[in-house]
Ribosomal RNA small subunit methyltransferase B (Roseovarius albus), 393 residues
Amino acid sequence: MTPAARVQTAIELLDEIQAGAPAEKVLTGWARRSRFAGSKDRAAIRDHVFDVLRQKNSAAQLGGGQSGRALMIGLLRLQGIDLETVFTGANYAPAALNDAETDAARVNPNRPSAIDLPDWIVPPMQAALGDEFGETARLLAQRAPVCLRVNLQKTGVSSAVSALADEGISARASALSPTALIVEEGARSVAGSGAYRDGWVELQDAASQSAMDLLPLEPDMRVLDYCAGGGGKTLAMAGRVKARYFAHDANAARLSDLPERAARAGVDVKIVTQQQLRSQTFDLVLCDVPCSGSGTWRRTPGAKWRFSPDDLAELIEVQAEILDKVAMLVRPGGNLVYATCSVLQSENEEQIAQFLQAQNDWRIVNQKRWPVQADGDGFFCAILQKITKFEAF
Ligand SMILES: C[S@@+](CC[C@H](N)C(=O)[O-])C[C@H]1O[C@@H](n2cnc3c(N)ncnc32)[C@H](O)[C@@H]1O
């Protein structure tokens, strides 16, 4: 496909997304129907669509509307691309610009630049982030870094960096965690690399790794990852300390990749059902709860426009229910770890404050928030300890 034909396809897919279809589904559906498109075409079209979604309000402002075509015009203007070379109307290229589209570029210099977030989320984000709000909004509108975690059970950081370099992948250490690498070149080759296949590295955000570094893990502890999903956090813990790891998820299908990932990483993880958890206790229980994902919206930019106040209210209830459930699974003196990739107080500090108000046998050991930053996503983690009966007297 020519670059202009890719733009025209992105325009059509953005129209479907603007009509309410989820971005991921639209892109996958198109790739399946379009056997003529190669991997470079698919990647370029995905980039156009995701770049627009990250900066949708800015693109609409510069493109003069919310249609796929207006948004693509706005995005290309943001990127400084000469529209005349793309909007030619030749072959599969988009039609030439009309007068209104040309006029939309005449931006009033006094007009404030757009915030690329849904209007309703701005006040709670400003309340949570204060002076950091502007920088967070700016970073969420950019592409996310590709971040790896070095698996210390299999290799060291410098060996992993050299193995990746041998396969054309250049990566640098991140200050966020001793195991975190930021890929600077060759990101698309990571999944096919030997370092990945042999379990030396895994894809994982640096702030998530930094949070797992804080956990008071000891060899032979019984550790439960209660909302394990694909097992990213289980594997990060197991990469650090050889303990006995158990993984659970309310949606068993989400655990399906974990056995293969654990085998690749060379660690043991036992999957447990709710039934098996009855009458068991653990030294440490992690609940990486379902959340808005607002700290990761540059990775899933379609999600931020679909997320609603009702979704947030529902999630806050689910998070509180999970906290109440896992509290019973921690042995006296053990730790409960609550984590989200949200930047909102209602999902983070307020959730912990309410839990501590309702339950008097817990204390906070540590609570930390990671802002969205160049190397890492927004993340929150609270480490609580269950007070023993002896201490309570
Ligand atoms: C943020 S994701 C977890 C990501 C995972 N920890 C990782 O690092 O890859 C939240 C997970 O919680 C699960 N979940 C939702 N409600 C739950 C519940 N009531 N009990 C346990 N897990 C739940 C979801 O299925 C989802 O996999």
Summary: The mean pLDDT is 95.
